[in-house]
Amino acid sequence: MEFFVEKTALIVAGGGPNSAINTQVPAGQRRRLSGFAKMTIEALLQVSDELHDSPDVVLATQHGDFQRTIRLLRDVAASHELSPTQFCLSVNNAVLGQFSLFTDNRASMSTVSAGPLSLAYGFLEAYLVLQQQPHKTVLLVYSDEPLIDEYQHFCQQPQQAVSMAWCLRSAATASATAVKLKLQHQPEAHAEGDIDRLALTEQLQALVSGCSAPVTTMANRQRWTWSRVDAQAA
Fold first, then answer.
1. Least crowded by CB within 10 Å, which of 2, 111, 173, 193?
2. Residues 201, 207, 212, 213: what is their CA dihedral angle, to the nearest 10 degrees?
3. pTM: predicted TM-score of the whole model, two decimal places
């Protein structure tokens, strides 16, 4: 799989102010956003600020808006009445609906959740969109937050809240400055365990920024490798 990266944005918890969302989303609406939604929309806004069309959007996430979901589960356990609004906003694609409203983007939007390999499968979904519609621009965003202590024995990743977005295009519309990446998938019989999500996103950011070393992640008996095509040819 090959695609072109026009722009990236990496948001890490405590990493600084959310400048894009603060200027593009009214304060009254920002206050109703969860932490998960804020960092996801911030990353998307940072990679779409120079676009003149409405891009398709793919959200990859393992846990979704977990903090909102756990509050609903605690309300159920306490026999409290659930808030219809909070319930609607807890589903994975709710944040994409909010992004759509803020940006008046009526293009196709989808979510992918594939355990520790959610990011890799998000790239696969974005690639398939570009294969079907090579003149489209696709925004891919990966977002996840740490689980609470009671769930840490199920999954310890991510250790910090992280969101990373990519503006992706095919060869048909890529600019001269876009970075061409290749993503390869192979079976790996001994690949088990979890993936350090923050380290993975930081490595992918470095790859786009000029690092020539391929980035590999393994889980669920699968190996996924991102590499720069220009580095391979050199």
1. 193
2. 10
3. 0.88
Of 99, 97, 35, which is closest to residue 68 (Cα–Cα)? 35
- What pLDDT, on the 0 to 100 scale, is given for residue 230? 78
pLDDT in tens, 58-108: 999 988 887 777 777 787 788 888 887 777 777 878 899 999 999 999 999
The CATH code for residues 2-181 is 3.40.47.10
Intra-chain end-to-end CA distance of the chain, in Å: 19
Degrees, nearest 5: CA angle 32-121-204: 80
Sheet with 222-228: strands ordered across = 109-112, 56-60, 138-144, 162-169, 2-12, 179-187, 222-228, 215-219
| Neighbour tally for 31: CB within 10 Å | 8
Q: Are 58 and 143 in contact (CB under 8 A)?
A: no
Decide which of 209 and 92 is more confident. Answer: 209
d(CA 43, CA 126): 16
Q: Residue 234: pLDDT above 50? A: no
State the Rg of the chain over Cα. 18
Q: For residue 150, what pLDDT is reported?
A: 74
What residue ranges do the domains of the chain occupy?
2-181
Count of CB atoms within 10 A of residue 103's CB? Answer: 19
Strands (E), the chain: 2-12, 56-60, 109-112, 138-144, 162-169, 179-187, 215-219, 222-228
